[in-house]
């Protein structure tokens, strides 16, 4: 599956928030990137523009391309419950995101790399598909080789890290106890705007 490989700070500046949790201070955070960023920012955003920005923001946070994200939305629309909350739940239970939430990797992009390189095991079987949907009750562990990667080793040694309440972690093993509630998903997005965007 394709993924974005361009400059990440540019995307964060466009959305006005640190999308990738790298702790970088955004220069000119209120000004979109590009030569004419300041000129473009004077325009009052339309309702469509606001909805588009929210959709792009969540897509970039989870590192998903447009076609795949549309697929997640269509899947969420068919499930009983609030479409926006179901969409967030589907994104949160992706394998690469759970590896990140368990604290095995400092970013979602590194978590994705760990998965695609075959370093992650789900219920005893190696899974190298970042978009794999993890179910409640499944256990995620790291291969021994992965535990020697400096960034991973550092994260595993951080005993102060607390994963979200819907996950449990012990050393290099994590367990999905249940699906997350909306209040437990800290992604800075308004999912209702995304639902409105696709409902036009």
TrEMBL record:
CDD domains attached to this UniProt entry: S4
Residue ranges constituting the Small ribosomal subunit protein uS4 N-terminal domain according to the UniProt record: 3-92
Subunit structure of this chain's protein: Part of the 30S ribosomal subunit. Contacts protein S5. The interaction surface between S4 and S5 is involved in control of translational fidelity.
Domain RNA-binding S4 per the UniProt entry, residue ranges: 93-158
Function of the molecule: One of the primary rRNA binding proteins, it binds directly to 16S rRNA where it nucleates assembly of the body of the 30S subunit.
MF (Gene Ontology): rRNA binding; structural constituent of ribosome
Family: Belongs to the universal ribosomal protein uS4 family.
InterPro entries registered for this protein in UniProt: Ribosomal_uS4, Ribosomal_uS4_bac-type, Ribosomal_uS4_CS, Ribosomal_uS4_N, S4_RNA-bd, S4_RNA-bd_sf
Keywords from the named record: Ribonucleoprotein, Ribosomal protein, RNA-binding, rRNA-binding
Listed GO biological process terms: ribosomal small subunit biogenesis; translation
Protein name according to UniProt: Small ribosomal subunit protein uS4
Pfam families recorded: Ribosomal_S4 (PF00163), S4 (PF01479)
Chain intervals for the UniProt region annotation (Disordered): 1-50
Source superkingdom: Bacteria
CC annotations in GO: small ribosomal subunit
């Amino acid at each position: 599956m394709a993924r974005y490989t361009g400059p990440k700070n540019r995307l964060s500046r466009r959305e006005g928030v640190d999308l990738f949790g790298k702790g970088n201070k955004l220069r000119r955070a209120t000004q979109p990137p590009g030569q004419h960023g300041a000129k473009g920012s004077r325009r009052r955003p339309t309702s469509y523009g606001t909805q588009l920005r929210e959709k792009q923001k969540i897509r970039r946070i989870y590192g998903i391309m447009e076609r795949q994200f549309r697929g997640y939305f269509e899947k969420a629309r068919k499930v009983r419950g609030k479409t926006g909350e179901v969409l967030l739940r589907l994104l949160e239970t992706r394998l690469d995101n759970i590896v990140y939430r368990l604290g095995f990797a400092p970013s979602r992009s590194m978590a994705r790399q760990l998965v695609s390189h075959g370093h992650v095991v789900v219920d005893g079987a190696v899974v190298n598909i970042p978009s794999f949907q993890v179910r409640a009750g499944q256990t995620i562990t790291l291969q021994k080789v992965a535990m020697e990667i400096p960034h991973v080793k550092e994260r595993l040694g951080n005993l102060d890290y607390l994963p979200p309440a819907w996950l449990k972690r012990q050393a290099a093993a994590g367990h999905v106890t249940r699906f997350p509630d909306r209040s437990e998903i800290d992604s800075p997005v308004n999912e209702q705007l995304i639902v409105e965007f696709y409902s036009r």
